[in-house]
Amino acid sequence: MGSIADTTAEAHAARRDDPADAAFSSREVDGALCLRGAATLSNLAELQAALQSGARRIDLSDLSRLDSAGAWALATYRRRVEGAELIGLKPPHADIFETVDTALAPPEDDPAPRRSMADRLEGIGRAVVGSARTGGELIAYLGIFLQRLAVSIRHPSRFHLTALVHHCQEVGLKAVPIVALMAFLIGIVLAFQGSTQLRQFGAEVFVVDLIAISVLRELGILLTAIIVAGRTASSYTAAIGSMKMREEVDAMRALGVDPAHALIVPRILALLLMLPILGLIANVSGLIGGMFMSWIELGISPAMFRTRLVEGTDISHVFVGLVKAPFFALIIGIVGCHAGMQVKGNAESLGMMTSRAVVAAIFMVIVADALFSIFFAELGI
Amino acid sequence: MSGAEREVVIRLRGIRNQFGTQVVHDGLDLDVYRGEVLGVVGGSGTGKSVLLRTIVGLQEPAAGEIEVLGVDARTHDEDKRQALRRRWGVMFQDGALFSSLTVRENVEVPLRDVAAGGAETARLDDETRHALADLKIALSGLPPFAGDKYPSELSGGMRKRAGLARALALDPDIVFLDEPTAGLDPIGAAEFDRLIRRLSRALGLTVFMVTHDLDSLHACCDRIAVLAEKKVLVTGTMAEMLEVDHPWVHEYFHGPRARAALASAAE
């Protein structure tokens, strides 16, 4: 080293937790920037501050440590400042510098493109096309399900009966308590609200008709479908999605097992079989709830409730309600299975598809229910 | 370079690991020296990965002393442990990348920690962090576009490289690699061997590598440690391994595959 004139602007910082991280300092010597100490990640800010001086020559012979972060700062500096040269690089540091310098990509000159109006429009267009495509895929899944079901009927030996029974238990039997409780509470609420309103007209006894028609036609099956959509669509998506993630679905295909046959048919069929039963349970439970509350609130005895129910309510209301169940079951099952098959290889997409399946299933069930209402009203049933 | 007077960066003494009644390690001793690439081999179930997990603190040993970079790694002082963790990097078998983050964001995770836990001087701005992550990605031999990809969009080999990039993020003194070449094609594996060799030389890394790959042992390991009979049976260079007459070690280094690897290394 030559003579050192100490016109120092020393940036000194004691390192905290790490004794091996020595301090870093810099000084101007004969027009060259002389770096001293550890040019490492933990001193990166000081190093960059020192390099702000814009010196052409940088003397590195006093460096005690250099890591790839320090080397990166020096290498980018050399690229940025024209005519900059690094001198006195010691052999172990030279290796690091060399490695980093060669690894550094050539400077890029394409700044991120700005989002123009057309881009925003494109986003909307893509979303619309995407949902149209999803709709098409759902219909395709319905077709796949029906086709595989037909195959199962022609070749019963290929049918996965164990899976069907298992899913019936999961979807149907295990959902009975929550569905029954929910419908019971709905019956109570209807009786309570109905009685306070109808009492004003002295028409308390019509509370039976109110409960019967609303539970049997609409609420029993609709709320059951919503609960099942929340419970089952999500579990279908999660189960199929995680199988997709672990390439189990691909393994099935490779082994000659049709995933639609093994995964989709038993699940949707289980829902088809179970949802009407759950709906019926909800109907009964709702009526019991209503009867219970009418008895307490209005003094309508269970016997009277029964008589009024049988005389005043047409049996067609039950069928109008339950006929919707298979359609709701198809919607829930197809949306759940389809979303499961769309899961990509990461955990994030599994979660996203699961929540999307629940929202889509509930939304579509309600839309379908509205369509049914209009349909039946037009028919005058 | 004789081993005796070199700095020991990992010192294991009397390590005992057991799961229930099954004892995996008993009285295991091992020294790893600064700047070397150590290959740890052993049959299935001899606890190679368990040993790695023990050193980095993912598995608490039943007994024994672990000293890494002169610090007791089993200390209960959480600050010391945290400081230690930042001086080593771990690459898990399949990369163990966070699947909801891009490769660049994965590499930035440890760098974020620097900014969060540090003194005011250690704060990294976003731009610097991106650039450093990109540098690590490039050092690991990944093309620049890989930074914006999600782990699920990468091949197995690229995921391993991305895992290595994350392990290198803080310029660690020691890098732990769990089966770095498992599941790679021979060309990819050979490239990975060269990469490890090159990085360990250039950055002065100490590499602790669990491997089954005889070619890797030839291509990049300075020293080999053989795990058998619940301890480190023998350590030494490849040439020394060939002299050992323990039956398992002999079979391992003289079997048909070993001979093939030896022949290809001699070319």
From TrEMBL, chain A:
It holds the Pfam family MlaE. Signal peptide: none annotated. The keyword Transmembrane applies. Keywords: Cell inner membrane, Cell membrane, Membrane, Transmembrane, Transmembrane helix. Its main location: membrane. The chain crosses the membrane at residues 171-192, 268-295, 315-336, 357-377. GO terms for cellular component: ATP-binding cassette (ABC) transporter complex. Belongs to the MlaE permease family. This is Phospholipid/cholesterol/gamma-HCH transport system permease protein.
TrEMBL record, chain B:
The keyword ATP-binding applies. It comes from Poseidonocella sedimentorum. Keywords: ATP-binding, Nucleotide-binding, Transport. PROSITE patterns: ABC_TRANSPORTER_1 (PS00211), ABC_TRANSPORTER_2 (PS50893). SUPFAM superfamilies: P-loop containing nucleoside triphosphate hydrolases. InterPro entries: AAA+_ATPase, ABC_transporter-like_ATP-bd, ABC_transporter-like_CS, P-loop_NTPase. Pfam families: ABC_tran (PF00005). Residues 10-254 form the ABC transporter domain. PANTHER family: PROTEIN TRIGALACTOSYLDIACYLGLYCEROL 3, CHLOROPLASTIC (PTHR43023:SF3). The keyword Nucleotidyltransferase does not apply. Signal peptide: none annotated. This is Phospholipid/cholesterol/gamma-HCH transport system ATP-binding protein. GO terms for molecular function: ATP binding; ATP hydrolysis activity.
